[in-house]
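re the bet — no i am not wrong, look at it urself. input seq straight from the record:
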Amino acid sequence: MEFKQIQQVIEIAKTASISKAAQNLYISQPNLSLSIKNLEMELGASLFIRTTKGIELTEFGEQFLAYSRPVYQQFLQLEEICQHVIHENRKIFSVSTVTLKFVYNVFVDIYQKHREENIYFSHNENTTKGVIEDVCQQNADIGIIIFTSLQRKSIKRVLKLKELEYTRLSMELPYVIVSTLNPYFYKDIESVDIKELSIYPFIASYGDIFYSSANEMSTVSSINQLARTSKIYISNRACLYDLLYRTDAFSICSNNAVAYKEEKAYEKIRPIPIKSPDFNFEIGWIKRKNYIISPIAEEFIYKVIQTMEG
């Protein structure tokens, strides 16, 4: 399989036409058809079928495209980064983080401070599992992760296996989060029992607090019950907050009160401490073992600590 063949599959899928794809790729139609045929023979399955509407992906072709498109985009990004490094001798600061608004704000502050310098800035939001992979695969210099007391043992095992060094930044109590469409947004209360919210939909986030084994999950009855009864599962934080804004559902997250003392994390979203929680959150940062981080990465971590401690 060649990189150009991935590019060809993407172009054919986009145009739904061999002839249009060939024109856009500046190659002849017979050569493009032969290239795709050779790829299908190598893969042992068909990528496209002809219909009255034109060329369409097969079920296998859709799976192939779903996996190959990110690879293609990463290759283009790598090519661009290499050009900057080679031709401009540009420094790189890359960080992968879970979705924490105050961490993103720190990244922006660091960028604003050093924007006139010859530095390539890269910020990638991911799940804790994804952040670990980003740092392990050298897609990021450092990473910010969050996990619960449910996950502590399994996360530490993964970090050790992947030869990553971990430094804890803080321990955080869990909060329920609701929008203005949930009556609890307006209640004059200092904390809430999760059982009180059982009449409302619960939004569970893949790769977040539910990235735990069944044994770990079962040790915390409240989370175990929520996970079994939840009807809404989402894969990213943007989707989570959009659902909160549009429904009376609720979810669970950490909420560093110091970091958000001057500015709320999100408008029209209220965090309420959970009454007598049987778990907590832990936030920390990771890097590859024996890897010496850059001065700007040190500055970023220092700024994150300052923000969390006030």
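see?? The chain is about 45% helix and 20% strand. told u. also Confidence is low (pLDDT under 50) at residues 210-219. so pay up
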